[in-house]
Amino acid sequence: MNGAPEPKVYGWCPGALRPMMSGDGLVVRVRAPLGKLSVAQARGVARLSQEFGNSLLDISARANLQMRGIREDAHEDLIAGLRDLGVIDPDTQAEARRNVLLAPFWAEEDDTHTIATELSAALTAATDLSLPGKFGFAVDCGAAPVLQDTAADIRVERAGETLILRADGAETVKLVTRESAVPEALALARWFLTQGGAPEGRGRMHRLIARRGPPPAHAAPMAKAGFCAKPGAVPAGTLAALEFGQMPAATLAQLAEHGEIRLTPWRALLVEGAASLPPLPGLILDATDPRLQVVACTGAPGCLQALSSTRDLARDLARHVPAGTKLHISGCAKGCACPGTAPLTLTATGENEFSLIRNGTAADQPLKTRLSARALRAAPELLKEGS
Ligand code: SF4
Predict the structure, then answer these.
(1) Which amino acid residue places its CA nearest to atom 6 of ligand 1?
(2) What gap in Å lies between CA 10 and CA 326, rounded to an integer?
(3) Looking at domain 290-384, which of 3.30.413.10, 2.40.10.10, 3.40.309.10, 3.10.180.10 is its CATH number?
(4) pLDDT tens by residue, 319-328
């Protein structure tokens, strides 16, 4: 640990039907079906955010849309409005189970779109399947996988001409077809449970695989692929990054003027069919913008656990982050904005006071402690110490 107080671990993520209280009101996370909002849905969500919340919307690392600052007494009316828009599950269990992330570059009826559609329906119907709150599926069947660096427990990917099923953490896979992918994915989820992957209702696939290895039928070798999302034109439209994964609700409504919206796990939106997008508050449209090199969690005052604000410092330090590297600024040791390692991390240990960690997580041993935000702004070369 880095000397900061231990953050509280809840072990579950907020949903729409099961929101979580934060420093700025309820966080209501909307799991848009197939990670997509029609024009009417995008306008509707923006309007509801303005009516019942603080008009700020986040994109989560699993491509969910998070409405912030929702008043507790308005939650019921908000859910009624979201239900009318068709973005709400029948109940909290179905909402938790339908944790399906699909590669956002899909085309109608291709493998990714078809399998994700069928898997979402199968998970909604699988009322006997009691998976841990964070357990998720990734459907990533484009020419090359783009979600391998995004958290998921069960993955359907492409390897050349074939489709493969992979338990996260395993280095071997099972060959599947478009028809068998969904039943095989559900069978793998059940295997996870029967093998004791979720004692006391918590657990992740990669931890089980580390303990007991992959299922016997998973014997084919896997291939690793890297992917880095950048703002700009893509075959399905235009990708717009969001500063710290957040935008004003009005920006979502204005983006909907340009096309339907796909949510991505890269703190970015894909606007279908758009050749270009206008500059709007919260958007990053230039692939060389230095803010793409920083990630920062909500911090204070929006998060109850935060020991300091984070984003103003991240904005100020962004242009000093060495090219090709990444700076993570975390309001506490939990590291929500970047659960894995980052080349540089500043973890708050007090108000405007940070520890510097190199090549680690927000909770790892620091290289330097008690760095004030003022000192970092005055001498950003402090970030390069020990490199
Ligand atoms: S990492 Fe940031 S958002 Fe997560 S609990 Fe800590 S302060 Fe809150």
Answers:
(1) 332
(2) 27
(3) 3.30.413.10
(4) 999 888 999 9
